[in-house]
Amino acid sequence: MELTVTRDVDVMADVASAMAAIVLRWTLASGPTASLALSGGRTPRPMLERLAEESDIDWARVVVFQVDERLAPLGHVDRNLTMLEDALLSRVPATVHPMPVGGDPDRDAEAYAALLPAALDLVVLGLGADGHTASLLPGDGAASQVDQSVAVSGEYQGRRRLTLTAPTLSRADHKLWLVTGPDKRHALDLLMKGDPSIPATLVSVEGARVVTDRYAVLGAD
After folding, report:
1. 170: nearest Cα among 211, 130, 136
2. CA distance 182 to 186
3. Where are the domains of the chain?
4. Is 16 helix (H, G, I), strand (E, B) or coil?
5. Is residue 186 within 8 Å of residue 130, measured between CB atoms?
6. In angstroms, rounded to a whole number, what is the distance separating the alpha carbons of residues 193 and 191?
């Protein structure tokens, strides 16, 4: 994987948003739509806010999916969608397919899988200190799921989740990883080495770029 180390979170957001914008513009130049799958959490927010300012992207032809979502009520602070709407989706005229988490989780996973394209154009991923990405969690069955495009995780930090599976993420043409903070140093090292002990390495490295702040590499603030 290609690794880009930046000075701090602000510069990382600038670099990552520029990379994402290039992929979206290139994809839209060669086809009718571009599919973009987004992760939640704090890390991608600055990047998404900057991406929303990319006025030369034909956002009306961008189709947005979620990488994962907590089973929580609509509008709840725990929902990844809440942050995504605030940072990006409320600012651009993209088509959005939120993960349905209000009914039976297994049926919701099947319904969402039916909406996905054969291969996503770009997925934005994060990395947990424990080596998880999306909601592919250490020791959880969803991480080893190979027969489904969307799976249901066990409880993690108080919530079960819907998540795109490793094969779905691997099929994406472009993967953009965002990694920040000194607590991610060990997980980042394992990711870059392709160490199979963490779920994040289940995602193919083909078409993958990792953008970090220097603290995730140095492990010191």
Report:
1. 136
2. 9
3. 2-218
4. helix
5. no
6. 5
Burial class (CB in 10 A: 0-12, 13-18, 19+), 91: middle
Question: What CA–CA distance (Å, rounded) separates 2 from 176?
Answer: 10
Three-state SS at 101: coil
Report helix, strand or coil for 63.
strand
**Per-residue pLDDT tens listing for the chain (221 residues):** 999 999 999 999 999 999 999 999 999 999 999 999 999 989 999 999 999 999 899 999 999 999 999 998 787 778 899 999 999 999 999 999 999 988 899 999 999 999 999 999 999 999 999 999 999 999 999 999 999 999 999 988 888 999 999 999 999 999 999 999 999 999 999 999 999 999 999 999 999 999 999 999 997 65
What residues are paired with 213 via a beta bridge? 6
Residue at 169: amino acid letter: L
Fold of 2-218: Rossmann fold (3.40.50)
CB within 8 Å of 69: residues ≥ 6 apart: 40, 79, 80, 81, 98, 99, 101, 161, 162, 163
Token pair 């991608």 is at which residue? 44
CA atoms within 13 A on the CB side of 35: 20
Cα separation, 158 vs 110, whole angstroms:
23
Integer Cα distance of 54 and 40 in angstroms = 20
How many CB atoms sit inside 10 A of residue 138's CB?
A: 14
